[in-house]
Amino acid sequence: MRSQNPVLALALVATSFGVGSAVGQPTGCPVADAAGHIVFADGAILMETKLAVNPDGAAASYLPGDHGLTYLNNGVNLSRGGKKVGCVANQALCASEWRRAELGAFGSGTPEFCVFAIEAEPILPGSSLVPCERPREGRFLVGNGKGQPKLGDAIASVSGTSVRPYVSTTSLRHRKDGKTAYLDSGAIPGLVVPLERADLKGSLAWVRYGAHSTFAIVSDTGPAFGEGSVALHQLLRTGAVTPLPAVGPIPVGARCGPAESGLLPPFQSKPDGGKADRCRTGHKPGTSADIRAYEGIGRGVVSVILARAKPPMTGSTVSEEVTTDRLRNWADAAGYGTSKLEAMARCLSSASRGVKGGG
Fold first, then answer.
1. What is the CB neighbour count within 10 angstroms for residue 291?
2. Distance CA 252, CA 17 (A)
3. Domain extents in the chain
4. How many Å separate Cα 122 from the centre of its chain?
5. Side-chain-side CA neighbours of residue 273 (13 Å)
6. Which overall architecture, per CATH, does domain 18-55+171-241+297-345 show?
7. Whole-angstrom distance, CA of residue 359 vs CA of residue 348
8. What gap in Å lies between CA 153 and CA 358, rounded to an integer?
9. Model pTM score
10. pLDDT (tens digit, 9 = 90+) per residue, 118-174?
């Protein structure tokens, strides 16, 4: 049974959006902007995009040796002489330098990195972390003795051993089991918005793809619209959230077995030998492979971000645990039932369909 929180902190503005009583067609739809987004009088933003995968917040997101669901280059930037070197644009260099930092236990003389999707901690107890060259909440330096990436609890690997991942962060947090925690990408349907729209952080959202729809929450910021958590991808593809697979690497001797052939989107195998070493009839793999959450949705994902509807929050922390049931309850309490959201989604004109977001 659903229960509504009587002290739900929701900022709402009345909307002029109407729904025709006969066939449920929207009336008075706003005109789409240059990006194909439709903004309603209540601040809700409607868009159709592709959807890349953002595993940040999942335990298996970043692993030592770069074996996580995503690449370390997506969560760090190299810092040289106090200047940022973007790792997305300099992947080989950053990967090599991160390996050097790992081998040197991030101590004095190792390369420095600004981490923005991994939690940092001091190397020496009682010492303070050093902010990145462009100070921003949660961004600190690791390496050269200035800090190290924090290790999380051990998780299972394909080889049967356990590994301690780096703690992956999200800019939005929530209260879970009496503690403040990052939002788990593998359990909570989350959306990413551009950094310049950080004001949307914590906003409720409704997302639909094909026959499946779900409520979500804006859990992180990134370069553009068009990224979603692992759980959101699963819900949009199958209507259910399933456990994350064991982490890689998959040893050469175990390649093309159940750990690899049983992967379902958004998970996919990324062999060290590249596309040439993918599993196929008559081919004997020669390299190990990592399991990545990289299979996005190419187009047709409809999102309604409820800009002024948020759960109770203190700063960047939701005051309660975020769950799929609570997301629906909060949206219902704010007056956004599924039928209303579906009607709003019909405001997408043929001219705005297919407009791609980021990711």
1. 25
2. 57
3. 18-55+171-241+297-345, 72-163, 252-293
4. 26
5. 14
6. Beta Barrel (2.40)
7. 21
8. 32
9. 0.88
10. 999 999 888 999 999 876 667 999 999 999 999 999 999 999 899 999 999 999 999
